[in-house]
Amino acid sequence: MxxxxxxxxxxxxxxxxINITIIEINKNSVKLGIETPKSSxxxxxxxxxxxxxxxxxxxxxxxxxxxxxxxxxxxNE
Length: 77
Description:
Blueprint: E1 11-14, E2 18-25, E3 30-35, H1 45-64, H2 72-76
Antiparallel strand pairs: 1-2, 2-3
GO molecular function, one term: mRNA 5'-UTR binding
Pfam families: CsrA
GO cellular component, one term: cytosol
Protein backbone atom coordinates (compact mmCIF):
# COMPACT_ATOMS: atom_id res chain seq x y z
CA MET A 1 0.00 0.00 0.00
CA UNK A 2 1.24 3.46 -0.88
CA UNK A 3 0.91 6.14 1.82
CA UNK A 4 0.80 9.80 0.79
CA UNK A 5 0.51 13.01 2.76
CA UNK A 6 -1.65 15.71 1.17
CA UNK A 7 -3.05 19.03 2.35
CA UNK A 8 -6.34 20.71 1.42
CA UNK A 9 -6.49 21.48 -2.32
CA UNK A 10 -3.60 19.11 -3.07
CA UNK A 11 -4.17 16.18 -5.42
CA UNK A 12 -2.86 12.86 -6.61
CA UNK A 13 -3.14 11.55 -10.16
CA UNK A 14 -3.72 7.86 -10.93
CA UNK A 15 -3.17 6.42 -14.42
CA UNK A 16 -3.04 9.92 -15.95
CA UNK A 17 -6.84 10.22 -15.88
CA ILE A 18 -8.01 9.93 -12.27
CA ASN A 19 -7.55 13.02 -10.13
CA ILE A 20 -8.19 12.83 -6.37
CA THR A 21 -8.18 16.15 -4.51
CA ILE A 22 -8.38 16.76 -0.75
CA ILE A 23 -11.38 19.07 -0.30
CA GLU A 24 -11.81 19.20 3.45
CA ILE A 25 -10.24 17.69 6.56
CA ASN A 26 -12.23 17.33 9.78
CA LYS A 27 -11.43 15.66 13.07
CA ASN A 28 -12.74 12.24 11.98
CA SER A 29 -13.11 12.47 8.21
CA VAL A 30 -11.59 13.62 4.96
CA LYS A 31 -13.67 14.90 2.03
CA LEU A 32 -12.27 13.92 -1.35
CA GLY A 33 -13.06 15.20 -4.81
CA ILE A 34 -12.63 12.52 -7.47
CA GLU A 35 -12.47 13.27 -11.19
CA THR A 36 -12.59 10.21 -13.44
CA PRO A 37 -13.51 9.34 -17.01
CA LYS A 38 -17.26 8.78 -17.42
CA SER A 39 -16.59 5.11 -18.09
CA SER A 40 -15.13 4.65 -14.58
CA UNK A 41 -17.12 3.44 -11.61
CA UNK A 42 -16.32 4.89 -8.20
CA UNK A 43 -17.80 3.21 -5.13
CA UNK A 44 -17.17 3.47 -1.41
CA UNK A 45 -15.52 0.24 -0.27
CA UNK A 46 -18.44 -0.75 1.97
CA UNK A 47 -20.84 -0.44 -0.99
CA UNK A 48 -18.48 -2.43 -3.22
CA UNK A 49 -18.24 -5.16 -0.56
CA UNK A 50 -22.04 -5.47 -0.35
CA UNK A 51 -22.32 -5.75 -4.15
CA UNK A 52 -19.61 -8.43 -4.28
CA UNK A 53 -21.27 -10.39 -1.45
CA UNK A 54 -24.70 -10.24 -3.12
CA UNK A 55 -23.22 -11.31 -6.45
CA UNK A 56 -21.48 -14.27 -4.81
CA UNK A 57 -24.71 -15.29 -3.07
CA UNK A 58 -26.58 -15.07 -6.37
CA UNK A 59 -23.96 -17.25 -8.07
CA UNK A 60 -24.16 -19.81 -5.28
CA UNK A 61 -27.96 -19.84 -5.49
CA UNK A 62 -27.86 -20.24 -9.26
CA UNK A 63 -25.28 -23.01 -8.98
CA UNK A 64 -27.26 -24.88 -6.31
CA UNK A 65 -30.48 -24.58 -8.31
CA UNK A 66 -29.07 -24.96 -11.80
CA UNK A 67 -31.16 -28.06 -12.48
CA UNK A 68 -34.27 -25.89 -11.92
CA UNK A 69 -33.43 -23.31 -14.59
CA UNK A 70 -36.45 -21.94 -16.43
CA UNK A 71 -36.18 -22.23 -20.18
CA UNK A 72 -37.27 -19.36 -22.43
CA UNK A 73 -39.98 -21.61 -23.97
CA UNK A 74 -41.49 -22.15 -20.49
CA UNK A 75 -41.79 -18.39 -20.01
CA ASN A 76 -43.63 -17.92 -23.32
CA GLU A 77 -46.31 -20.54 -22.55
